[in-house]
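User: Sequence in, structure out. Go.
Assistant: Echoing your sequence, followed by the structure tokens.
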Amino acid sequence: MLVMTGTGTGVGKTIATAAIAALALERGQRVAVLKPAQTGVAPGEAGDLDEIVRLAGKRVTTRELRRYPDPLSPEAAARRSGLPALGPGEAAAAVSELDDGHDLTIVEGAGGLLVRFDAQGSGLADVAWSLGAPVVIVAGAELGTLNATALTAEVATRRGLNVVGVVIGSWPAEPDLAAGENLTDLPVAAGAPLLGVLPAGLGQAGHDAFVDRARLGLSPWFGGEFDPEAFAATVARRT
């Protein structure tokens, strides 16, 4: 069981989730991905789970509990739409149900760790705590990512969560000085190891190419081959 959270929107959380799922499927594991709340997508439109199936493979089980058309937090989107809000207990129950029939269940949050599901302020952190699930932080590579990552990790720790690592979800083709230095500094900010670096644009790859690149970009912890020290040394020579 894993809970995937981001330092914000657009950091590559869905791609990182798909990459982890793809490698688990390649190892013969039964994999499920739960998206508690999908926002900014109309009924019938493709959402994050469709992208995960396209990239990771059709053998992945997916479940979405709520869908709201407005691109807002789940709480705000539910309020505007008049649709029922999502409670953390419902999300945790769905994860437990999926986990009974799968080897790995991944929960992909919406935005960051403290994004609100309901008017009571519940969110992904409450789901992770109730399940005792390890948390992976998906972060950006750019200037400013260290503060967002440190805040996420500090809040997670204060709430009794176990942050097992950080993954850079969208590594630029031409990394600047800040991105190169962040390879060293992000694990410090997160208080957990760098478990992967996935290239920008990876979501455009076909299935086979996606799996190959996921293997290169994710740590052996996920069944990949990524070596953070070797990667940092290669980047340092180029920047």
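User: And one key feature?
Assistant: The longest helix spans residues 13-26.
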